[in-house]
Amino acid sequence: MNALNKRSLLKAVALSAVTLATLAACGKKEEAPAPAAAPAAAPAADKLKIGFMYVSPIGDGGWTFQHDLGRKAIQEKFAGKVETSFVESVPESADAERVLRDMAGQGNKLIFATSFGFQEYVQKVAADLPDVKFEHATGYKQAANVATYDTKTFEGAYLAGIVAGGMTKTKTVGVVASVPIPEVVRNINSFVLGAQSVDPSIKAKVVWVNEWFSPPKEAEAATSLINRGVDVMYQNTNSPAVLKTAEERGARAFGKDGDMSAFAPKAHLGSAVVDWTPYYSKVVEDTLAGNWQGGNFWWGVKEGAIDLLKIADDVPQEIKDRVEKARAGLKDGSFAVWTGPIKDNTGKELLAAGQVADLPFLTGINFYVAGVEGKVPGAEGK
């Protein structure tokens, strides 16, 4: 056989092999198909990263402690869907801007800035980062990606004032105040109005420390008030120092923002406790659904955001009943703390009998009501 014939034979054999393989494959089509491979699992959706910026330590027992309880609540409620983080003790200075930018750089798409003095830094950073949503507590400046929110802490102050009015023996109550902004002045006045609803002759003294969290200064201010005849104190600061000082000196006082009863059980008359969980839950739920809303949100007793808790056992039942009546009125809208007649401490009528303060009035308070000694810092001559 010559070489040409050999090549022809080999080619024929190869073609026959291909044909047999093809037929065999066709024959297998009659058999049940092998199970299809399971589709690859879709990648899990990214968690919503949420940052919280605090002005004082989370262990302050009050303002920041309550915000952090709200953070923990949403971490638990939306487990698997969100990831939260926080930075505490951030000064109301350029440091706040740095922290905000760092939070955004770490992938946080929702950031809560929880103190009034963070306002300008929130506005500046938000303008540069339109894809990040910012929530600013106690502020008033909004933007397309900035909402403001607050709790009607003045309602808690009023309820505490009712208790103070029933418990003071010197007829002189006092307030240790932080920073002279309308929010704080409103709380001072509301506390006094509550006390005067029990006894119109009650007077009040105020000491300013010009900081949100400074236990030594708060204790010093409380001591000053007690030395000037005050026997029941309220505070608009973030630590339990006022309450502790009251216990040391035989006076009475209130916890604010958080339950501070354990810090000074003998002095404690009640705690005006803020609960941020309802609001934080709403914001996170809306954000997850793609329905985040800007604007201004101000929740109070009605929404479960503030209440006076753990009223002391020795408070007379008549006073407890007064508190409950006011609380019920705040819940159903039949009562408003700022209802006339109300005068300032110069005798000027601010609200006529039956007149209820509107939002511009409430957010612009820079005066003391009748019975409060002195003038609001920075408001002289206004």
Would you mind describing this structure in some detail?
This protein has 382 residues and is α/β, with parallel strands linked by helices. It has 2 domains: 48-151 and 277-302, Response regulator (Rossmann fold, 3-Layer(aba) Sandwich), CATH 3.40.50.2300; 153-273 and 306-363, 3-Layer(aba) Sandwich (Rossmann fold). It contains 11 helices and 14 strands. It has helices spanning 3-27, 63-77, 94-105, 119-128, 153-167, 182-198, 215-227, 241-249, 277-288, 317-332, 359-363; strands spanning 48-53, 82-87, 110-113, 133-137, 146-151, 172-177, 203-208, 232-235, 252-257, 268-274, 295-299, 306-309, 342-343, 349-351. A 6-stranded parallel beta sheet has the order 2-1-3-4-5-11, with helices on both faces. The chain has a 6-stranded mixed beta sheet with strand order 7-6-8-9-10-12, with helices on both faces. Helix 2 links the parallel strand 1 (48-53) and strand 2 (82-87). Residues 1-44 have low confidence and may be disordered.
